[in-house]
Here is the input.
Amino acid sequence: MEIDVKKVAERIRGMREILKISTEDMAKATDTAATEYLACENGECDFSFTFLLKCSQKFGIDIVELLSGTDPKLSMFTVARKGEGLALQRRAGFEYLHKAHLFKGKLVEPFVVTAPYVEAEQAKPIKHSTHEGQELDFVLSGSLKIDLNGHITVLEEGDSIFYDSSIPHGMIAVNGSPCEFLAVVIPKPGDRA
Here is the structure.
């Protein structure tokens, strides 16, 4: 399923208006300038996974509702076969596959993420993001360089890292090939719908 940025933007604006949240409050909640927030809400620019997560947390809804416009329905279990899930591409080349998008009342957001190897990124500072809660990243294949606010480590296949995701963090694939990893985003208690 391809994500339509304009439709997601409409859902964000609609939820903000329904909940009577000011654009200034949403800008603060998403750690963006008011002009940047409005550009995202108007579908004039793309938005990051972190932006979407922060919007869904502010609205008290599942991130899947923002992405697809539907509310997850399953409550006993859900199965996502290899290559299946709700596809999301939010950062240049990074592909997210939500592995439990049909399950309602999730306590975590599980993704299989593919980070492309980009030669030009290797000598640059890694772009950071933050979101409330915690995160577990488990490398399935390739190598992943992670920067946690200046603390840098490289994870190889089978390695994992668990961290406070309110700390500025970012990651890139290294060693000449893409990296696939399981990312489990754990919202701060009280940030779930």
Q: What stands out?
A: The mean pLDDT is 90. Residues 5-18 form the longest helix (14 residues). Residues 86-186 form a domain with the Jelly Rolls fold (CATH 2.60.120.10). The chain is about 25% helix and 30% strand.
